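Lab notebook, bench 4. The sequencing result for the construct came back, and we need a structural model before the next group meeting so we can plan mutations. Quick request posted to the team channel:

Model the 3D structure of this chain.
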Amino acid sequence: MKKLIQALRSISFKNILGVFFAGLLIFISTACSNNPPTAQSSAEGSLSETKGLKSELPSQIQPKQKGELYSYNNTDKDIVKRVKDVSEKVSNSTSEAAENLIEGTKNNLRQVKNNTKQALDQAQNMAEKTSTGIKRQASKSAQQIKDKAGDIEQGIQKTL
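Done. Here's the predicted structure in token form:
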């Protein structure tokens, strides 16, 4: 690590600047030259005829040259067919997504309805248990009051 740091310190700013300007000079001279570098072809004809446009395009799409314009025979129909196929797939998948969303929403609403019903049933059961408990406690308290009243009455009779 120390050797690396020493090596980096030994490089001067002038060296870095010189390499940068050399690269910039090469880039500008290549970009501005009138004769850009081209690949050498051993076959006869121009580069665009032997290796260029025709070799890059699939055989279905390769144009037939008429004068200076290219005309495409049945490829337009193929392109239109492909576009229709893709648009049908997109519309079908969109329809399926919409149907799935609607079905999911219906399922969610059913689940909400069931959960609400369960919550109401639980609240009603708790209210009934509470009222039953209150009634039981009230009758127990009333019985205790009667017992105490009877005890007081007996105590009064003993004293008389």
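The two ends are 114 Å apart (CA to CA).
Will bring this to the meeting.
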